[in-house]
Amino acid sequence: MKPIALIGFMGSGKTTVGQMLAQEVSKPCVDLDEAIETREGRPITDIFATEGEDYFRQLEYNVLQEFAREDVIVATGGGIVKEEANRKVLRHDFLTVWLHISYETVAKRLEGDTTRPLWQQPEHVKRALYDSRLSLYESCAETIVEVDHKSLPTLIKEVKRYITVI
Ligand SMILES: Nc1ncnc2c1ncn2[C@@H]1O[C@H](COP(=O)(O)OP(=O)(O)OP(=O)(O)O)[C@@H](O)[C@H]1O
Ligand SMILES: O=C(O)C1=C[C@@H](O)[C@@H](O)[C@H](O)C1
Ligand SMILES: [Mg+2]
């Protein structure tokens, strides 16, 4: 079976759902943001501030590729779909589940967040980023799970149902 990749906008719950799902199905969960931070020995905010987003995207591509043939659940970063190279790997090597969230729910969840560099921008820029990402997630998604107003156990059940029928 291909590895599972959870994709979706910042705050959609990829890390949270990925960890709980992995426990339920007894597979390791790999969080790409965490893997990058561990390797670089510094937080993503520092990587963006010092080397910039392009450098971060290269690191992200490297770790995505590394887990493309492992039996794992991968929680991707929200911007993984920005690069065509990543989209190709996702489509070809992973079973992808898009955690689809509304902008309003993201805004509630990430109020006061300081750890996501692209969330530290004016409201209209964040909305434009959200809008521009939708078609990119869609272009990689094998299935969509709506996350608004759903508890974690409900979401886990939905994702699990999908991956066990594959
Ligand atoms: N179903 C849910 N209901 C309520 N809160 C949730 C739910 N899922 C996640 N959260 C909360 O939303 C916040 C963001 O979740 P998480 O870090 O898992 O998102 P993410 O998709 O991994 O974001 P990123 O793309 O930035 O890595 C966390 O505070 C988490 O506890
Ligand atoms: O949406 C994005 O571009 C990002 C989301 C986070 O998961 C991190 O990967 C980083 O903050 C960039
Ligand atoms: Mg995450």
From TrEMBL:
It comes from Alkalibacillus flavidus. PANTHER family: SHIKIMATE KINASE (PTHR21087), SHIKIMATE KINASE 1, CHLOROPLASTIC (PTHR21087:SF16). Substrate binds at D33, R57, G78, R133. SUPFAM superfamilies: P-loop containing nucleoside triphosphate hydrolases. Monomer. Keywords: Amino-acid biosynthesis, Aromatic amino acid biosynthesis, ATP-binding, Cytoplasm, Kinase, Magnesium, Metal-binding, Nucleotide-binding, Transferase. It holds the Pfam family SKI. PROSITE patterns: SHIKIMATE_KINASE (PS01128). GO terms for molecular function: shikimate kinase activity. It catalyses: shikimate + ATP = 3-phosphoshikimate + ADP + H(+). Its EC number is 2.7.1.71. Pathway: Metabolic intermediate biosynthesis; chorismate biosynthesis; chorismate from D-erythrose 4-phosphate and phosphoenolpyruvate: step 5/7. ATP binds at G11, S12, G13, K14, T15, T16, R116. Binds 1 Mg(2+) ion per subunit. Mg(2+) binds at T15. This is Shikimate kinase. Its cofactor is Mg(2+). The gene is aroK.
